[in-house]
């Protein structure tokens, strides 16, 4: 189960506080030291942890908290609030164009992150209110094209491919024409992933963006990879420009690092989380619910 170890450690830190009737500044600082260690062990970005703990400390050692009715509870509340803030405070909705127009969503990510699966999950989610078209722009892996086609069928949404002999830019452009002709108002481009970030991959994504108007560039990152997911997000944002992040594999035993640091490091919100392999396992991301879940 995700975050188990982080949740246990945070609860230990708070247990110490709760066992005391009144709190001193030193008590709070000692507990926050434990919180800091727990976050670092959960693979949260170092700078993010430092900033987070200092924000909590600033609020938690104030007169009002220490002399309040239930100081330990207040400290936990502050940690919860700051954690929510760290992950973006508000839920970020995926904004769609008016249904008269086509909203273009470009999915990107490293190979294996869950991009193709997530593209199909997203199409399924949007199917109720729009007419999505899933487009196979990965011209390097025929298996990825097949996988998208199979998933499109399962989701009962339309699928567009031109095989592997045409450039991804040409495919994206042709898909737009196809969508216009057939009345699709959401086009989801599934792009090629690589095992590692490379310049050619980034250029291909930029070329697609130059050729068609992409409204949302969504990056899928594997939550299980912790801080590496954050590094990946930083690089994609720098080199391609992303609007939002989808954290996949949050059903696994992720330690929490990616969920807690991606927004703070990249400035881009987490929109959805992948909660399993099934095509229905995509959930909206709620920072406040996630914070409460982490705190147990
Ligand atoms: P891509 O190479 O980025 O397109 O990755 P795929 O979509 O092919 O996914 C790689 C593997 O991760 C597949 O076995 C998926 O079923 C699995 N996967 C994707 N998303 C999730 C998720 O949210 N949870 C779990 N447990 N597995 C996932």
UniProtKB/TrEMBL annotation:
Domain SRP54-type proteins GTP-binding: 269-282
Sorted UniProt keywords: Cytoplasm, GTP-binding, Hydrolase, Nucleotide-binding, Ribonucleoprotein, RNA-binding, Signal recognition particle
Location relative to the cell: Cytoplasm
Enzyme Commission number: 3.6.5.4
GO biological process: SRP-dependent cotranslational protein targeting to membrane
UniProt: GTP binding residues: 109-116, 190-194, 248-251
Catalytic activity: GTP + H2O = GDP + phosphate + H(+)
GO MF term list: 7S RNA binding; GTP binding; GTPase activity
Superkingdom classification of source: Bacteria
Primary location recorded for the protein, binned into one broad class: cytoplasm
GO CC terms of this entry: signal recognition particle
Assembly information from the UniProt record: Part of the signal recognition particle protein translocation system, which is composed of SRP and FtsY.
Note on domains (UniProt): Composed of three domains: the N-terminal N domain, which is responsible for interactions with the ribosome, the central G domain, which binds GTP, and the C-terminal M domain, which binds the RNA and the signal sequence of the RNC.
Protein family according to the UniProt entry: Belongs to the GTP-binding SRP family. SRP54 subfamily.
Function according to Swiss-Prot or TrEMBL: Involved in targeting and insertion of nascent membrane proteins into the cytoplasmic membrane. Binds to the hydrophobic signal sequence of the ribosome-nascent chain (RNC) as it emerges from the ribosomes. The SRP-RNC complex is then targeted to the cytoplasmic membrane where it interacts with the SRP receptor FtsY.
Entry protein name: Signal recognition particle protein
Residues of the whole record sequence present: 1 to 296 of 456
